[in-house]
Structure formats: C-alpha cells, structure tokens
Amino acid sequence: MQLVKSSFLLIKILTVTLLFTAAYTQCYAAKDYETLLSEIEKNVKDIKTVKSFFSEEKHISMLKKPLISEGFFIFEAPDRLRWEYTKPYSSGFTLNETSGTLWDSSQNIHKKYTLQSDPLISGIAKQLILWTSFNRKAIESDYHIKLDGSKILELTPINEATRNIVSKIRLSVSENTDSVDSVEIYEKNGDYMSIKFYNKEFNISYDKAIFE
Amino acid sequence: MTKKDCIIQRTYKLLQKYRSIIFGVIACVFIFSVFKTSNINVTQNIEVMLPDKGERLTTSYNLLQNTPLAKKTIITVSNDKDMLNEAIDAVAENLENTSAFKNILKGPGSDNALNLLMEGFLILPNIISEKDAEYLHTLTSETTIDSIMSRNLSRLSSPAWLGYKQIIENDPLELYSLFFKKLYSAVSFMDVVVDNGRFKSKDGKYGMIIADSASDSSITDIKNASHIIKSYNKALENNLPEGTEVFMISHASYSVANAKTIIKDLRTIVPISVIILISLFLIFFRNKHSAILLFVPIFAATLSAAIISSLYKDISGIVIGFSSVLLGITVDYAIHVYISVKNAVNSGYGISYGVKNIIKPVFFSAVTSMAAFSALLTSNIEGIRQFALFGIAGITSGLIISLSIIPLVFTDKKICAGSDLPEKSNKQIPAAKATISLCIFAAIIFIFSSKIHINADFKNLGYISDEIRANERKYTEIWGKMRDFTVIFSTGATEASARASNEKATYFLYKNFPALEIVTISNILPSDASQKKSIDLWNSFWHENMITVFSELNKSAEAHGFSENTFNKFKKNIRELKPPILTLDSINEKGFAGITNLFTSNQGKVYMTLLYGDASNDKLVKLEQEVENTTAASFKNFNIELAGIMRDDIIMFCTIALLSIITTLIILFRNAGEVISSLIPAAAGLAGISVVFALFNIEVNLFHIVSLPLIIGLATDYGIFITTESIHEKNTARRGVLLCGATTIAGFGVLILAQHPSLHAIGITVMTGIISAIAAAVVIIPLTVKK
Lengths: 212, 787
Hints:
Number of strands of chain B: 13
Order of helices and strands of chain A: HHHHEEEEEEHHEEHEEE
Shape of chain A: globular
Radius of gyration of chain A: 17 Å
Strand content of chain B: 5-15%
Mean pLDDT of chain A: 72
Distance between the termini of chain B: 28 Å
Shape of chain B: elongated
Distance between the termini of chain A: 21 Å
Helix content of chain A: 25-40%
Oligomer: heterodimer
Low-confidence stretches of chain B: 415-422
C-alpha cells in the first residue's frame, strides 16, 4: 500500500479518466458547443442517480495485447459512488460521503478509508463533485473544449505538465444526445484508452449499503 | 538649634546664593545626558531577558529560533471553487513579485512527484542500510517479482493507470518503496502531502507556501515586519482565482501587532495619564512652580540611561523602556520635599526648615527603594540586573535633584531655621500590634502566592491579536502542532561533519526513543561513511544478483503479457547506477531543496532532527554527552527551566530586598514597632497582588516580577512617611502619600487599560499593589499607634 499512499500526486491524472462518469451523466445533445454546455449545466441538476456498465480497452505500448476490463458504476449525487471492475480483476472502491471501502482481490486488499486518510480517493471525490455539479468555470480552467462534428467533445488539457501525459480526451455523445456513449483518452506517446458505456439507467433508487 | 540644623541651614544658604549656577549645572548635565542617551545602542534582542545561570538556556533559545519554519512565513491557501492549484500558483507568483519575500516554496522542489520518485530511485544506492539490502533480496525473489508483476498489471487496469504506467516502466520491482519509507521520515513533521508538486493538507483542501524574508534584517525588526505584512497584503489584491482564501503565520504578524498595540495603548493611556497628573497637580498645588516636579523623573531617567550606557555597550530596549517608566517614582521624593518646603515657607519658616523636616524620611525612602532595586542585582537575568542598576542610578539622581533643586524654586526671605522639628511625641507604635498586622498580610501572601502560576513563555510577553490566535488555531487544525517537539541540533565545521553528527544523533534517537516520532533527513542524506557503505552494499547485491533478477523479471513480464523491451530503461539504470557521494548541495540540485531547507541552516553546518512527544530530559542530556556537537532544545523544556529560574529569582529577590529594607529601617527608626509598622504597606501591597493574581488566575511573567521593586520600594516609602508622621505631631505626610499614590496610579496604574500584555502586567501589578499599600499606610498604621 506504500504506492497507494504515495501516489496521491497522480490524482489529477487519474481523475481525467473519471471524466466519462461525469460526461455520461451530464452530456445532452446540442447544436453547438455553447448550447451543448449550457444544456449540460441545466440538465445535470435533474440527475440524481446513474448506473452504467462499461467495457474498457487500454492500448498500452508496454503490453503486448490491449488490456480489456469490464465493470459497472453507480453514482448518486452529490457524493456517493460505487466503481467496480469485474474482469479481469475484481477491484474497485466505494464512496459514501466522506468514507468508503477499497478492494483489490489480486492484491488481497480490502480496507475502509476516509477522505482524510486517503488523499487518492479524496482527489477522485473532489473531481467527481466538480464534474457532477458541472462547474463549467473550473472545467474550462483545466481544459480547452471544442466540438468535433456535432456529437464529439474534444478536451485538451491547458496545463503543460498534464498535456505531456494526456494529449486529448474525446467524449462521444449518443445519437439521441441524452448521454455519452464512449470516452477516449489519448496519451502523448500514442497509447490510448477507450471506454464504452451500455445498459444505462437514470434516477433509480439504490440501497445505501452498496456505497458502504 | 542642633549642629545638624546648622549644617542644613548653611548648605541651603549657599545653594540659594549660587542658585543660577546650580540650575545651569543641572541643565548642562541634563543636556549631556540627553546627548549621551541619544547615542545608546538599543538592541531589540530578547536574549538580555534570558538567565545566564547556564549558557544552555540561552543556547537553547537561540537554536529554537532556527527550528524548521520558525523564521519562515507560512501561507495557507484554500479555494472553494476547486481551483486550489491555480490559487496556490497565483499567490506564490504574486509574492515573488514583491520585494519582501525570497525562496518561495509551494512544493518540495521537484516539478512533480514522479520526478521526486525517479530522483529517489537514483539515490537509492546512497541510502540503503543493511536491513534494506536484506529487503532487496525479498523484493527480487522469484515469488515477489511474480506478485509485483501481477500487481503492476492490476494497476494498469485501475483508474490510476496513467500514473502507474510511468512508475512501472521506471521501477517495475517497486524499489522506490525503500526510498519512500525514508522520505516519509523527513516529511512527517506536519500533516503535509505533496500533490502535483505542491504542499497540501491531507484532505487536499489547503495548500501551503513557505517563504523567507528577502531582507537581511530580522523578521522581528519592525520595519522589515511591516514591509512583509504590506507586501503580503498587496500580493493578495490582484489576480487570485475567485473563492481564494489565504492566511499567514509569521513572526512579522506578531511584531507588527505588538508595535500597533503599543502605539494604540499609548495613544489612549498617555492622554488619560497626563490629564490625571495635571489635574492632581492643579488640585493639590495650584502653583506654576509645581511643574518642576515633573522634571525630576525625566531628569532621573535620562541621567541613569546615560550612566548605564557607559557601563554596557548594548542596552535592551525593553530595559530602557521599562526602567524609564518605573523611574516615575522619583516624582514622589520631589512631591514630599515640595510640600514640606512650601509649608515651611508659607508658615514663615525658611527653606532649610522644610528640608530638615523631610530629609530623613525622603533619604531613607530612597535608600529602601535602592535596597529593593539592589536585590535585583542578584538576578540570573542580565536584563533584570541592568534594570536594577538603572533604578539605583535613577533614584540616586532623583533624590539629589529633589533635595537640591526643588527647594530652590522657593524664594527664602527668612533664612532662620526657626524652631526645630518637634521632638518625638509620646506616641508609640507597639511592636506586638504592628507585628499582628504584618503577620496577617504575610499569611495572606503565603496562602495566595502558592496558588499563583509562573508563565515563562516568552511568547506571552507579546501581544497576540484575536486574528493571530484564530490563524494559529486554523494552522494547527490543518497542519498539525507547531511547537510541541524537541529539536536536536547537530553542528560541524563542515557540511559533511554536521551531517555525520546528525546521523549519529538520529541513531541515538531511534535506539532510545522507540515510541516517539522522529523526523529527520538523515535517512535520505546520510553521512559520507554511511553512503560509502550503502554503495558497497548496493553494488555487492547487484553484482551477485543482477543476472538472476533480470532473468526472473523477463520471465515474469513475459508471463504477464508485458512487451519485451518494456523494462530496458530500468535495467540500464541498474547497470549504470554509480552515484557520487551525496551532499546537501547535490541532493538539492535533484529537487529536494524544499525539504532539506527546513532541516538545515548555515550552508549545512547545522542540521536539525525533530523528536515529537514527551522526551525524557535525562536521555536528551545523555545524547548531548554521547554524540559530539549536538544540542537538544524544546520550547517546553525551555519554559520549564526558565520558570524555575524565575521562581528562584523571585524568592532570592524578595528575601534580599526584605533584609536590606529592614536593615535600613532599623537604622532609621531604631524601634521595633516603627520598623514593623513601616513594613506594613509593603506587605499589604504584596498581599493585594497575591490575592488578585490568585483569584483571577493571572500567571506571573517577567514584567510582573520587575514591577515588584516599584511596589516594595514605594510601599515602604509610604510606611516610612506615615510612621514618621504618626509618631510626630505633623500632618503633611498623609497628604503627600495620597498625592504620590495618586500620581503613581495615574502614571502606571492606568496601564491596566492597555491591551498589550507587558504594559497590562505593569498596570495590574502597580494598581493592585499601590492601592493595597496606600490603604494599609493611611488606615492600618495609624491604628497601631498607641497614644
């Protein structure tokens, strides 16, 4: 766990991957960039819970084959989340306001944490709240956002250090513009990750215990 | 007419004859004193208030001023719009654009944590211990490598894969865990984490910026402190992201708050004091000549400052300020002489008659005050000794000028001394009666003084505003405790020797304080000898195991699906890693300056290690004995030791003062009842102070202690005058005593209104002591007289 303790500094990079969570919950169809973002701001207020399954493909040069993972997430505004991988490893974390559980079956890790004791999760939570509440000003201070075609939002990190790792993020809005279908995160060295969402459900009540 | 009367008469005849010359001489002495005083080298160094009983305490104090962060300005930044990084950067940039700050640190010195981690990996050969070398075997065993590779793959699947990817590529065997363990021991002194190259609180809500003063002047120097505060405020005016909140902890805040409070206090108190004094003089004297009375304390303070400046090269501003205030008591002698001479002249007797009536009690009053001040010469604190000399010189000059100049303001048409001072009446003061009163006060002192606590914390001598207190509280909540630690200072003629001492001290602490938290940079910057040993261990390990480890790594990487050349960079680093011996400079160049700067000073000739928790003093003394060039100091022990010395000082001072005063009174009265009676006001004064301090839980500080001679001296004066009056058929002393008491309260007692703790300390001591003493003098002494 030494690594987890010390790698809190990578939170910002990590949370880029969580963009899709927010994007999924927030992106609605729009004719142009301004309209799209305004509608997201407006519509996100009505989203109380989201559940979605996902499949993830990481094309990493250090691995011979793409790394394929599957899982699901459940988010309840403003600060409850269950993020779980089911394949190839069973791992994930929950967040229930200020505390939660971390697990990774491959490393035999299963522990309770609080936001104060675990800056890694604290960072994730902070970013989640940022995106779910769609603090547009804060997002725009981190990314240049442009509309590529009518359905794809392309985000470029403003910070050079971040840009040296993540060159761009592409969010693909679904055909009927009520959610995000996929997210692609591109690295400077050509590695990339794509994640596709399916079986999405909105505003369904969940037992609080799943966030414990 | 007695022989003594003749001498007095002739003397004043002569003085009157050369009145103009005498005034001229006094004026010259005064001008010379003013000139000499203006050239005094006044220091703001509080060290003068430290005991010289052991150099240890002073050394500790000086060393504690150099503890990590002690001289730094620490700025805490928050942002409620989730733009903390931007807020930290903006504040740091704005601070850099001011002329008040330098070495502005918002993080450990490296651009990002990955850099720090990589640099940490590269210095591993210099810092591993034998235990670490053993752990290397475990880390590189077949089973562990397989387990780590599996973990690496799992990490790449996690949401944090982007960060892990670079770490895995550079260090697939988690060798960095050895480095982080050592780094942790250097950064755990506060609740600080590093996020994106910035110091942050564990909850990520706050950022920390550490800055040095750009000026060579001390941060407590008021000009520099004001500049720092102004620049800080200016830096917060522009270009900060919305929702940014900032607060600062700095000695500069304390200095400016103190200076402002003193000025504010004086602006309130001086006019009140002046109005009361003028009103008193107008009511009592209704005479323009009486204005000269105010000249006496001014002359006494100036002359004694000039005399002290001849004895000491540097004089503490605290001593000068405080002594000058206390020398206001010399106005009492002038008042008594003035009243007596005025009465004599108005009654048709000569000046010398008035002087003769008062000379004895005035002289002995001055002697008792001098005795009280002399007792302070035994103090272990140089500042108090300077203060004692100042007091003695001031009282002497005040006495001389009261007896020489004050009578000459009257025109003596009738030189004849007239009838003599009435002989002693048949009134007596029975010793038993006076003793009972004295014993009652002594019992009160005994009972209540045991409930009074001494607060030796220098910090409490200064004013701490509500804002500063609130900031201190917030700081502690966010970053942890500020002062509850022992610092072990290791020094050396060179950086390398100081580093070696620091390492030895650290070993000692680990061995002797296993339960306490030790914060040190020794683990990431060991001595030259240890580094050589580490490098040997490292080389020896890889020489023996490189082929096997690389082979296991390749095998496991293949099995887990890693590409063939993924770990080439790691292998190259291991093969080519031949680091030179690390020094403070070289580790700083690698990006560790943000950490090392907090634990070193004087170009690395001083290293510091912190020990948190309740450390046994005996073991710390043993550390100093066993490890050369080390000194352990803590604010807690410093305050305990200082409080002990202050307690000894008070007991010693009171005993000597009492004995000296009793001796003087015996010479004056040669009567037990009168001697004891004269002591009643002093006892009442001390009893009053004891009761008030005990009931209101007022902790005694240095300023209370140095106010005691004033109370004892003045109260004894009141005793002498009222006792003399009571046994003679005169009624002028009571009026004089009441006026003197009123002027003292007007002058010093009003300081009770001050916000500044030092001024308030003087005020409350004087107010309580003088009121009690006057009440005892005018009420109790007359009751002890047997007609």
